[in-house]
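Structure tokens
________________
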Amino acid sequence: MPGGSFLRNNKSPATISGFKLRLGGSSRGRSSSRRTTPGAYEDKPITCIDWYTLFAFCAWDGGRLPTDAEYGFAAGGGEQQRVFAWGNADPYFNTHKDFVVATLVDQADNISKQTWGPLFRTADPTGTRHISGPEMIAPPGLKALGNGRWRHADLTGNLLEWTLDEAPVFPPPCVDCARVNWPDPPQDQASVYPPQWCLADGDGGFDNTVDGARGVRGGSWDNAHELSNLSYYAYGTSRTYASIGGRCARD
């Protein structure tokens, strides 16, 4: 399936300094790189951004969100069908700490360690959550050994990335391989955020939304997410997450 313009652009995810729009939504976790004023995290990729806001940002910036097919083609190296952006070798801390921003097992002591920031995540002594913040998230492009076949940075690891649609894509042959048959929003809710049609029926939550979910790809610094290109995740469009960001495609 051809990668299209995605192969020629979007070498790195969107960063804080390039993103100055107002953000909405809710967030789980305490690892957001976003702040209301310029600070120490300006060079880090944007996190805690919902699908709609990133969709609008890419349009404003002259681009669009990549489709799942485009992301998968680039991350897999086209016909090479790589398991990870760099190839097929399973990542461990002692062998791939310079390839990917992730939580990897060190084969020497069988302990999971971060490949960026402090070796270990800091736990909140008053609860079960981690308070390391965005220190585990790296500025884009610092793990060049793990770049994809066409030199895209961070296709594996650092952050999960929103795509335009949701996997699985239509099987070939297809003309428009994006799965974008979600419902149109009611026009009377243009000034409401989040619009009620995004909310789940009954409980007002975001996990199962009326307008469906969108795919995220690539794995992240958080070991809750598989790094393999064979892994797919889908999240509610109005939710925000500390381990999800994105990049814009350009035609």
Remarks:
- Helices lie at 51-60, 68-75, 93-96.
